Amino acid sequence: MEIVLAQAGIESGQIYRSWEGGFGAVLSGAQVDVLRRTPRVDLVEQDTEGRPAPYWRTSGDRIDGSYLVAVAPGADPAVVAARLGIASASIWHALLGFGAEMTDVQLDRLRRDPDVTYVEEDAHIYLAD
Q1: Minimal CA–CA distance to 78: which of 63, 94, 93?
Q2: Do residues 3 and 38 touch, judged by C-beta distance below 8 A?
């Protein structure tokens, strides 16, 4: 992604949300044009206020009602969880995120929080013999 950002002249201060394979940013018309012509870019679309953070489904053995949440740089994962009334099971300050069990209503509110960059379903991971 760094190459794409450099090609379009996008600086880190313009980016307000990022996730694996994508980002949200305040861009000029010229930067949007460059992105649309870049072969490595699959989609360029206008963001809207209140647009929910990306939600990734697992292809593995999903843990019902359990999610992994990434927060924006500068946001405190514990504060984000508490602000939304989510009792977090694990806080990862170094990874900028947390894991928690939550209801569908909490999940929807969480995805609309501007400090949340993405939400991913939690899953069991098994080691092969």
Answers
A1: 93
A2: no
Does some domain include residue 17? yes
Sign of the Cα pseudo-torsion (16, 20, 47, 7, in order): positive
- Strand blocks (E) in the chain: 15-19, 22-25, 55-56, 61-71, 88-92, 97-101, 116-124
Tell me the pLDDT tens digit for each residue of 70-103. Answer: 998 888 999 999 988 888 778 988 888 999 999 9
Query: Dihedral through CA 36, CA 41, CA 42, CA 46, nearest 10?
Result: -50
Please indicate, yes or no, whether residues 74 and 119 belong to a single structural domain of this protein. Answer: yes
CB atoms closer than 10 angstroms to residue 113: 19
* Residues of the domain holding 77: 55-124
At a CB cut-off of 8 Å and minimum separation 6, what does 13 contact? none
